C-alpha cells in the first residue's frame, strides 16, 4: 500500500473528489487531501496560446503543484499575476487545509505549442503534477471565450 | 440611479488599486476577479469628472496601413484597450467581452444601423516586437475581425497609454529566462459627442456590462 499517494494515478473528471481514501487530518505532516474543481479553458482566439483555470482544495497536509502537462500543448507553464505583472512561476504551494486558485486575472496556466485550436465543448486532458499527491488528471472543458465562472456562462 | 463620478486624481487611485489588486499572490483564497469592483456601485463603468483627451496615436493597423486614432475615430463612439496577443488570460477575455457585446448590440432595435456601425473597438499592442500587423490580424480574426488592431513604436504606445492613466511595460525577459509582462487592464470609452475618454472599465467588466452600456456610449450618454 502506498501511503504517500493515497490513491495513485487518479484519473478524475473536474469536480470530483480526489484522494477520498483515508481520513482527513490537518497537521502539516499529514497526507494532502486534494480536490480539483471548476476547471475550464476559455476557447482561445488562435492555436498559439490558451489559458487554463481551476481550484485545488486541500483538506489535509501541505502539497506543491510542481508542473502541468497536457497532450494539447508542447509546453504548459504556470503564471502568477502580482501587482499587474504577469510572471512565470516554477511551482505553487497548496496550503494545509487551504486552496490554490487559478482564476482569471490571477494565477493561470499557459498552454503553448498547441496541437490544434481547442473549440468550445471539447475536453482537454490536463495532468497536474503534485510533489506528494502525484499526478492528477483533469478533464478540462473548453468554454466560451467570455466564460465567467461566477455566472457559469 | 446612483452615478459614481470621480475626479482624475481619484481615478488614478482606482487604477493603482486595480493593478495592485490583480495578484492574489500566495493568498490563494481571495476571489481575484472581485477586488476591482467598486464598492457601493452596481455599475461597471466609472464616469470621469475630468475626461481624458483622446491620445494622439498614429500607428499601423493590421493591414499595414497608417492609422490616425484621433482622425479616424473622430465623432465615433470608441473603446480603446491596451494589451498583447501573447497574453492568454485577461487580454483575449476583455477583447471577447467587447466583441460579444458589440454583436449583442446589433440586435438592439432602438438603435439605427448607422449608430451600430459607428462603434469602434481599438486594440493597441503593448508588445509591438512580437505583435506585427499580421500577427495582430491573425489574433483578432479569432475574436472579431472588425476590431481595429494597432501596432507601432513602443515608446509611442506607452506615451499614449500614459495620457489615459494606463501603465504598460514591454514584456521583458529576466536573467532566468522568465518573461514578465505588465500592463494596465482598463478599457476607456470615448464619447462620439466630445471625442473625450469619459468612461473607464476594469478587467472585471462582463459581456452583460458592456452590452448594457454600449447603446449609451453610442449616443455619448452616461450609462
UniProtKB/TrEMBL annotation, chain A:
Lipid metabolism recorded as keyword: no
Listed transmembrane segments: none
Assigned keywords, A-Z: Signal
One family name in Pfam for this protein: PCuAC
InterPro entries tied to this protein: LpqE-like, Lxx211020-like, PCuAC_sf
Record protein name field: Copper chaperone PCu(A)C
Signal sequence, start to end: 1-19
TrEMBL record, chain B:
Span of the signal peptide: 1-21
Listed name of the protein: SCO family protein
UniProt keyword annotation of Lipoprotein present: no
Record keywords, A-Z: Copper, Signal
Cross-referenced InterPro entries: SCO1/SenC, Thioredoxin-like_sf, Thioredoxin_domain
CDD domains to which the protein is assigned, alphabetical: SCO (cd02968)
Coiled-coil stretches noted in the UniProt entry, renumbered to this chain: none
Signal recorded as keyword: yes
One Pfam family linked to the record: SCO1-SenC
Limits of the Thioredoxin domain: 48-212
Family membership: Belongs to the SCO1/2 family.
Top-level taxon of the source organism: Bacteria
Amino acid at each position: 500500500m502506498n501511503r504517500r499517494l493515497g490513491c495513485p494515478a487518479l484519473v478524475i473528471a473536474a469536480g470530483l473528489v480526489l484522494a477520498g481514501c483515508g481520513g482527513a487530518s490537518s497537521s502539516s505532516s499529514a497526507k494532502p487531501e486534494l480536490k480539483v474543481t471548476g476547471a475550464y479553458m476559455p476557447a482561445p482566439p488562435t492555436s498559439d496560446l490558451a489559458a487554463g483555470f481551476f481550484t485545488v482544495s486541500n483538506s489535509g497536509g501541505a502539497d506543491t503543484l510542481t508542473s502541468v502537462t497536457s497532450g494539447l500543448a508542447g509546453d504548459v507553464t504556470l503564471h502568477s499575476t502580482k501587482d499587474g505583472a504577469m510572471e512565470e512561476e516554477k511551482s505553487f504551494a497548496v496550503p494545509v487545509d487551504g486552496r490554490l486558485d487559478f482564476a482569471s486575472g490571477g494565477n493561470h496556466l499557459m498552454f503553448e505549442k498547441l496541437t490544434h485550436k481547442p473549440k468550445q465543448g471539447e475536453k482537454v486532458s490536463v495532468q497536474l503534477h503534485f510533489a506528494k499527491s502525484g499526478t492528477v488528471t483533469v478533464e478540462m472543458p473548453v468554454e466560451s471565450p467570455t466564460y465567467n465562472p461566477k455566472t457559469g456562462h | 440611479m446612483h452615478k459614481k463620478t470621480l475626479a482624475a486624481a481619484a481615478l488614478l487611485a482606482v487604477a493603482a488599486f486595480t493593478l495592485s489588486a490583480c495578484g492574489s499572490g500566495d493568498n490563494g483564497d481571495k476571489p481575484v476577479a472581485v477586488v476591482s469592483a467598486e464598492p457601493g456601485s452596481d455599475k461597471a463603468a466609472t464616469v470621469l469628472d475630468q475626461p481624458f483627451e483622446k491620445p494622439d496615436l498614429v500607428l499601423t493597423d493590421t493591414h499595414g496601413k497608417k492609422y490616425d486614432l484621433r482622425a479616424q475615430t473622430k465623432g465615433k463612439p470608441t473603446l480603446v484597450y491596451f494589451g498583447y496577443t501573447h497574453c492568454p488570460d485577461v487580454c483575449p477575455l476583455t477583447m471577447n467581452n467587447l466583441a460579444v457585446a458589440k454583436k449583442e448590440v446589433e440586435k438592439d432595435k432602438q438603435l439605427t444601423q448607422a449608430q451600430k456601425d459607428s462603434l469602434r473597438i481599438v486594440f493597441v499592442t503593448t508588445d509591438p516586437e512580437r505583435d506585427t500587423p499580421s500577427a495582430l490580424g491573425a489574433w483578432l480574426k479569432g475574436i472579431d475581425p472588425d476590431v481595429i488592431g494597432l501596432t507601432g513604436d513602443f515608446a509611442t504606445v506607452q506615451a499614449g497609454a500614459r495620457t489615459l492613466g494606463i501603465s504598460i511595460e514591454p514584456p521583458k525577459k529576466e536573467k532566468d529566462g522568465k518573461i514578465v509582462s505588465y500592463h494596465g487592464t482598463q478599457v476607456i470609452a470615448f464619447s462620439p459627442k466630445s471625442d473625450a475618454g469619459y468612461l473607464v472599465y476594469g478587467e472585471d467588466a462582463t459581456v452583460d456590462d458592456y452590452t448594457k452600456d454600449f447603446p449609451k456610449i453610442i449616443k455619448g450618454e452616461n450609462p
